[in-house]
Amino acid sequence: MVKICNYDFDENVIEEHRDVYGIAYTQNILSGRYKNLILWYLKESDYRFGEIKKFLTSISQGSLTKQLKELENDGLINRIVYAEVPPKVVYSLTNKGQALMPIIDMMEAYGREYRDI
């Protein structure tokens, strides 16, 4: 199976298993309990941290901060800071994040169809 280190993929594994690299890469950037939900929530509009926290009621502030930073580092979301007092921070999807929406939508459709089986 593909082994993923903390920062990237092992180059030897990529060469040996090029056929599953895309799956492993996508799984790696979406790993995290709430990342799929954060991306789904941001698909319709830009939101502030507090609005995302209100949507994901069971997530801790620390976990939300961590997952937002990871999504930003992976290039899936933008974090825009407005020079106001208090500071206003807004999160939105990047083009790379928008490109994941068909996958997120398919996951949602799959869950609707098979959740009661």
TrEMBL record:
Which GO-annotated molecular functions does the record name?
DNA binding
Would the keyword Heme turn up in this protein's UniProt record? Answer: no
Every copy of the HTH hxlR-type domain together lies at 5-117
State the superkingdom. Bacteria
Per its UniProt record, what InterPro entries does this chain match? ArsR-like_HTH, HTH_HxlR, WH-like_DNA-bd_sf, WH_DNA-bd_sf
Keywords assigned by UniProt, alphabetized: DNA-binding, Transcription, Transcription regulation
PROSITE patterns per the UniProt record, alphabetical: HTH_HXLR (PS51118)
Where is coiled-coil annotated?
A: none
PANTHER family on file? TRANSCRIPTIONAL REGULATOR, TRANSCRIPTIONAL REGULATOR, MARR FAMILY
Q: What is this protein called?
A: Helix-turn-helix transcriptional regulator
Look up and give the organism this protein is from.
Answer: Staphylococcus equorum
